[in-house]
């Protein structure tokens, strides 16, 4: 397995460009199953998760020519017919977002058989909300031998209330409802920008959707959807990770090609901590080297503070003066990075689903292990701030959602390199 080697203490400066959003690209790619025409997606990040979704769509019968050399983030997908209705365990186990093919396969082809995702390092993420909603649309659901088998002779619009806010559940059912007969009203929907981006794409394909980005989404079903061209939104979590990098180790960094409106909760917390930022139309400038203050943060569904930024912000709080409380309300096991941070000199104590961070504490380089995607980014940030060398194992977690992070950081002045396995 590849490793990252980081020598801390180098000040960062310059400009860095944000890639397209992984969590918007995956449902957009799954939407290709809703039509027999070509879907053209721009700004798709070259990360492992999009590669896995490509493989899955190929298994199902999609035609995916190679991206042009002059635009590696351009993706064309055509699904003239489905060769298989099954998303196999070998792919689903590596990426839980594979379940997003469930709704579109069912809506267009009347059947989907998807391996149950199973366990997840950061906590349980069941798909029961997806399945109960599809049943209300008229599907028959059977679970056997580790697979969920969903069938329908035609979906029909209805009213659906999600008991809990679910991003992938909202996306899955939204795609299914586009080809259902009549109107579907979805209540207690996720507000995330990625849901809005999917709705924009579906609208370009001919869907009739109102209310995306609010708690209530109305969908008037159509008989068929067409091909479309769509540019994926910037990755707000990657942008947020660079904001924290600038705060913890930067002189002055410009984060370009991002959407600052998606970063409001993080920008507010950074301001509370004492970090200086300047927002422009599609960029944010962050200035490091300032005195940091402790604060409290609680992860919440969008527009609240994102759980995907909790680990990165915790690294910054180890350098803030005072005691900070970090409450995790989304996933029950998303503090696995704490032990690794403490090995580097942090003072973080766990009290149930709250982390108590006492700072500032000097960090020292150490050999650490990444446990999940965002924990990987947290350790990279800690390595930038630490004295000496940090060696991060299992960085394949990082590659799931960050495109060439070490190259981008090196361009800002970080001493960071990938050590290939072998």
What does this structure look like?
The chain has 422 residues and is an alpha/beta fold. The protein has two domains: 3-19 and 234-419, UDP-n-acetylglucosamine1-carboxyvinyl-transferase, Chain (Alpha-beta prism); 22-231, Enolpyruvate transferase domain (UDP-n-acetylglucosamine1-carboxyvinyl-transferase, Chain, Alpha-beta prism), CATH 3.65.10. It is 31% helix and 25% strand. It is built from 14 helices and 23 strands. The strands form six sheets. It has a four-stranded mixed β-sheet, covered by helices on one side. Helix 1 runs parallel beside helix 7 (193-204) and helix 10 runs parallel beside helix 12 (373-385). The longest helix has 14 residues, at 236-249. The radius of gyration is 22 Å and the shape is globular. The model is unreliable at 119-125 (pLDDT under 50).
Short description:
The chain has 422 residues and is an alpha/beta fold. Helix content is 31%, strand content 25%.
Total of DSSP H or I helical runs spanning 4+ residues: 14
Note the beta-strand portion.
15-25%
The gross shape turns out to be globular
As laid out across the biggest beta sheet, the strand order is 21-22-1-23
At the first level of CATH, the class of the largest domain is: Alpha Beta
CATH superfamily of the largest domain: Enolpyruvate transferase domain
Major sheet details: 4 strands, mixed
Assign a percent range to the helix content.
25-40%
- Rg over CA atoms, rounded to whole Å, is 22 Å
Q: Which secondary-structure class do the elements indicate?
A: alpha/beta
pLDDT < 50 runs, ≥5 residues: 119-125
Count the domains: 2
CATH level-two architecture of the largest domain:
Alpha-beta prism
**Mean pLDDT across all amino acids:** 94
For the record, give the distance between the C-alpha atoms at the N and C termini, rounded to a whole number. 8 Å
The total count of strands amounts to 23
At the third CATH level, what is the topology name of the largest domain?
A: UDP-n-acetylglucosamine1-carboxyvinyl-transferase, Chain
């Amino acid at each position: 397995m590849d490793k990252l080697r980081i020598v801390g203490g180098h000040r960062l400066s310059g400009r860095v460009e944000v890639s397209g959003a992984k969590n918007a690209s995956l449902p957009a790619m799954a939407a290709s199953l809703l039509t027999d025409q070509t879907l053209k997606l721009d700004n798709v990040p070259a990360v492992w998760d999009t590669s896995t979704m490509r493989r899955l769509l190929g298994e199902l019968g999609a035609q995916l020519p190679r991206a042009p050399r002059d635009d590696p983030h351009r993706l064309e997908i055509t699904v003239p017919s489905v060769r298989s209705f099954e998303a196999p365990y070998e792919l689903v186990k590596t990426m839980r977002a594979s379940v997003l093919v469930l709704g579109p396969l069912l809506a267009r082809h009347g059947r989907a058989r998807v391996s149950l995702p199973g366990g997840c390092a950061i906590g349980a993420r069941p798909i029961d909300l997806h399945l109960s909603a599809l049943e209300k649309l008229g599907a028959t659901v059977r679970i056997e031998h580790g697979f969920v088998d969903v069938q329908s002779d035609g979906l029909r619009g209805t009213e659906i209330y999600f008991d809990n806010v679910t991003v992938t559940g909202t996306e899955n059912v939204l795609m299914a409802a586009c080809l259902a007969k009549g109107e579907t009203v979805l209540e207690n929907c996720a507000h995330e920008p990625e849901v809005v981006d999917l709705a924009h794409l579906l609208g370009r394909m001919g869907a009739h959707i109102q209310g995306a980005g609010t708690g209530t989404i109305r969908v008037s079903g159509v008989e068929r959807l067409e091909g479309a061209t769509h540019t994926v939104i910037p990755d707000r979590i990657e942008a947020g990770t660079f904001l924290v990098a600038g705060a913890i180790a930067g002189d002055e960094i410009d984060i370009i090609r991002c959407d600052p409106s998606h970063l409001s909760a993080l920008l507010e917390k950074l301001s509370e901590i004492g970090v200086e930022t300047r927002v422009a139309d599609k960029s944010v400038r962050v200035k490091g080297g300032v005195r940091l203050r402790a604060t409290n943060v609680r992860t919440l569904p969008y527009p609240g503070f994102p759980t995907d930024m909790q680990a990165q912000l915790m690294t910054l709080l180890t350098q803030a003066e005072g005691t900070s409380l970090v409450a995790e309300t989304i996933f029950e096991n998303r503090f696995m990075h704490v032990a690794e941070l403490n090995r580097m000199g942090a003072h973080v104590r766990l009290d149930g689903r709250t982390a108590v961070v006492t700072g500032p504490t000097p960090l020292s380089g150490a050999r650490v292990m990444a446990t999940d995607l965002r924990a990987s980014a947290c350790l990279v940030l800690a390595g930038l701030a630490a004295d000496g060398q940090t060696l991060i194992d299992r960085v394949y977690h990082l590659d799931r959602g960050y495109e060439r992070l070490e190259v981008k950081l090196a361009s800002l002045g970080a001493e960071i390199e990938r050590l290939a396995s072998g």
